[in-house]
């Protein structure tokens, strides 16, 4: 596995990690957003599901609790945040495979998953790493598998434009605000790619995206005729 020496922790600074969950609950439409993302994914019993950049495991746990017959994996680069995810999983009495690793070099074989989620992780990655993570998501998805992303996106109204302008150099959010994520997904091979909905938050618009890995190359060729 490629060594990931530098990364942006869940709440920007390591010493804030333990406040991540309470702050998300208080200041972010976390439950609505994550519930909508899971509902859109139509996970079926027996499917294999990966949550990249799972952080404290809130979404990972929600996926498992909503779909107990799915096998759920969570991956994050940060051991500190994974400890919180492990504790929450144990307390909930659920079985989730939690693993440390990098989003840009996923420790899974090709075509391992039916669904891949990435919630609020892409804005932690440089442009190059965003593109690499999306290529990795494509690689580990089975043909016909689907990617579900929640992340900062292009603002849809003037208030969100103003907030986005103020936070545009925060972490690696700039490309998100410019609306480049769907294009990066298409470049990674996904088709079709779409924005499903978006939420107004205190830090700007958060969009939910859906992207499919075609069943085979012919699917793509036929649709492009
Ligand atoms: C804002 S948190 C989101 C956590 C969770 N997905 C959620 O929706 O609450 C971003 C997470 O991405 C993780 N992360 C950052 N860079 C990463 C990388 N290169 N590989 C894997 N995880 C990474 C951080 O450790 C952090 O837990």
UniProtKB/TrEMBL annotation:
GO annotation terms (biological process): methylation
Listed Pfam families: Methyltransf_25
Methyltransferase domain sequence ranges: 49-145
CDD domains linked: AdoMet_MTases
Single Gene Ontology MF annotation: methyltransferase activity
Origin superkingdom: Bacteria
Keywords attached to this entry: Methyltransferase, S-adenosyl-L-methionine, Transferase, Ubiquinone
InterPro entries for the chain: Methyltransf_25, Methyltransf_Superfamily, SAM-dependent_MTases_sf, UbiE/COQ5_MeTrFase_CS
Protein name in the entry: Ubiquinone/menaquinone biosynthesis C-methylase UbiE
Natural source organism: Nitrosomonas communis
């Amino acid at each position: 596995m490629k060594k990931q020496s530098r990364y942006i922790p869940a709440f920007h600074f390591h010493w804030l990690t333990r406040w991540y969950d309470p702050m998300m609950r208080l200041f972010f439409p976390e439950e609505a957003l994550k519930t909508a993302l899971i509902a859109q994914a139509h996970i079926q019993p027996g499917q294999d599901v990966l949550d990249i950049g799972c952080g404290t495991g809130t979404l990972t746990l929600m996926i498992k609790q909503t779909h107990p017959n799915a096998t759920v994996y969570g991956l994050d680069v940060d051991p500190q945040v994974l400890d919180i995810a492990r504790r929450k999983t144990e307390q909930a009495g659920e079985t989730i495979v939690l693993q440390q690793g990098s989003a840009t070099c996923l420790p899974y074989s090709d075509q391992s998953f039916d669904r891949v989620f990435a919630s609020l992780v892409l804005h932690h990655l440089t442009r190059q790493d965003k593109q690499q993570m999306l290529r990795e998501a494509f690689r580990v998805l089975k043909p016909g598998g689907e990617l579900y992303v929640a992340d900062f996106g292009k603002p849809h109204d003037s208030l969100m434009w103003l907030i986005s302008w103020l936070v545009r150099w925060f972490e690696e959010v700039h490309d998100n605000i410019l609306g480049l994520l769907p294009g990066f997904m298409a470049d990674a091979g996904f088709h079709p790619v779409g924005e499903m909905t978006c939420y107004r938050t205190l830090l700007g618009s958060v969009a939910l995206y859906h992207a499919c890995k075609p069943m085979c190359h012919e699917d793509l060729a036929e649709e492009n005729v």
